[in-house]
Amino acid sequence: MSLINMPEHSRVWVFQANRLLLNAEEATLNSALTEFVAEWTAHGKELSAGFEIYKSAAVFVAVDESAEAPSGCSIDKVFRLLAAFGNDHNMDFLNRLLITVELESGIQIYSRKQALDAVHDKIIFSQTPTLNLQIIQLFELQNSPWLPFGNSWLGKTIPKDILA
């Protein structure tokens, strides 16, 4: 199910990739996630769920908790699916210490050190759109999956006189 059809109060998980998906990888992941959400259950009850692969850089997964709440075990299943896909394709969707930014040249995924270097090299600025990993409800995602770099976990650690 597409996220478009999900209620705005749906619970969301954001998984950023450590690199951009190739077209074939994205197609394979799309098929795997389509099958997964169609069969996703919690304690034998079907979950109303959806997903979106966003700009080849992230996966958003949502569940309408008002229809049926996911259990810890059912939530673990989506983490395991993305971990297994990552293992098969030399990727990582579970590294929360990466920074995904949208530059004029396109989406870039940086390690902490690479992002700090990009700040010093005047590639990343305070207002550079940065993927918001703290989104927990669909209405937040629908509003914008981005926040200014200066408001990100890493941006908040950089002195204001350095971060233009």
Characterize the structure shown.
The protein is α+β, with helices and mostly antiparallel strands and 164 residues long. It has two domains: 3-88; 99-132 and 143-157, no CATH class. It has helices at 23-39, 72-88, 112-120, 138-143; strands at residues 11-16, 41-42, 45-46, 49-54, 58-63, 99-103, 106-110, 129-131, 146-148. It is globular.
Keywords:
single chain, 164 residues, alpha+beta, 2 domains, 3-stranded antiparallel β-sheet, two-stranded antiparallel ribbon, 4 helices, 30% helix, globular
Sheet/helix structural class: alpha+beta
Helix content: 25-40%
Count up the helices: 4
Strand order of the largest sheet: 1-5-4
N to C succession of SSEs? EHEEEEHEEHEHE
> What's the story with the biggest beta sheet?
3 strands, antiparallel
Mean pLDDT: 94
How far from one another are the termini? 41 Å
Total E-strand runs? 9
Estimate the strand proportion: 15-25%
What's the number of domains?
2
Short structural description:
The chain has 164 residues and is an alpha+beta fold.
List the helices and strands and how they pair.
Elements: E1 11-16, H1 23-39, E2 41-42, E3 45-46, E4 49-54, E5 58-63, H2 72-88, E6 99-103, E7 106-110, H3 112-120, E8 129-131, H4 138-143, E9 146-148
Antiparallel strand pairs: 1-5, 2-3, 4-5, 6-7, 8-9
